[in-house]
Write a structure and sequence with these properties.
binds zinc ion; 53% strand; mainly beta; flat; 88 residues; 8 strands
Length: 88
């Protein structure tokens, strides 16, 4: 969960639609006889498990439906632990 001090866009007033995230990906490449490389377009693997919310000491980066982004002061708040069923 998050506490957000500026949940509405300072530019247009729309509520935040989501957080800005970063994610890594691997795009396949091929080598030409010249020794140079180019993206092959064959495969791009996105490492969804590594997706992270963009935040800094100033706050959490938010996005509105109009495409604006801003940094809202705030923090992540740990959720109560989810009970794990006992092994049977
Ligand atoms: Zn906006």
């Amino acid at each position: 969960m998050m506490r957000l001090d500026t949940p509405n866009c300072p530019t247009c007033g729309c509520p935040a639609l989501g957080t800005l995230e970063t994610v890594s990906a691997r795009c396949s490449i091929k080598q030409f006889p010249s020794g140079l490389f180019e993206h092959s377009g064959v495969e791009t693997k996105v490492f969804w498990d590594e997706m992270k919310t963009v935040f800094s000491p100033e706050g959490i980066t938010l996005l509105c439906e109009q495409g604006h982004d801003w940094v809202s002061p705030g923090e992540f708040i740990d959720e109560p632990p989810v009970p794990v069923p006992a092994p049977s």
